[in-house]
Amino acid sequence: MKKYAKFISLLLAVMMFAGVFAGCGGGSNTTSTEPSAPASTEPETTSTEPVSADFTTITEGVLTMSTNAEFPPYEMTDDNGDYIGIDVEVAKAIADKLGLTLQINDMGFDAAITACQNGASDIVMAGLTVSPDREAIINFSNTYAKGVQVVIVTEDSDIASIDDLEGKKIGTQMGTTGYIYCSDTPENGGYGEENVTGYDSGITAVQALINGQVDAVVIDNEPAKVFVQENPGLKILDTEFANEDYAIGVTKSNTALLDAINTALTELMNDGTFQSIVDKYITAE
Ligand code: ARG
Description:
By secondary structure, the chain is α/β, with parallel strands linked by helices. 33% of the residues lie in helices and 21% in strands.
């Protein structure tokens, strides 16, 4: 609720600034707490109503999603170069519900967030962890998955828990929460920036581990499982680094789209579609 209050006050500030444009259907003028919206098309979205059509996207009829498709099983390419993964299929299912065609724009991880922030994409789906810093620049949908930051080491490593990471060389994907936590100061629970290398992708970090350039990789648990399975000689430590929530990032001004996405997501969860997508990619242990 605190989060919501912050969001609403931010939104009110944006509305005061952009008030003159409020009737133009930009989508920045709708919250459920607003007494009377200037636009007559304001959606009154609750989870029980059908998905509202009162939203705009950057290209009419298209849901543009930015991502970094190097994060199995959430987003990756198959042998034909087609995008697959949990996020891809969930995004497709949401787009279907909203009557939109899904357009996927693959780029670096940081760039995928920035694209959503700048309105170059409507949404970012990238196994994206909800964090206060990110909530300041984009909106987040309801959460749809749990992520755990875990540690990958070589099978013969002397690193047995996260306490042994002190003074070791750590590889992460640039811009990820793994990088952000690990590069923080020891007082804040990190290992110091000088000990952490940010790679373009998780698999590049894992390659660096295999080549002996780093001693450990900190990354989300599901990609970690995939990378360890595909690269013999690696293991995941039992101790967890951090627990996180994944959500869909939506451009801040587009609250109408956020509402529609949340409604669609709830429906996909309630009718079992969401779980069946997850089950395709993650086998229960
Ligand atoms: N969950 C982590 C984060 O949000 C890592 C996500 C990386 N995703 C990707 N598609 N490369 O920072």
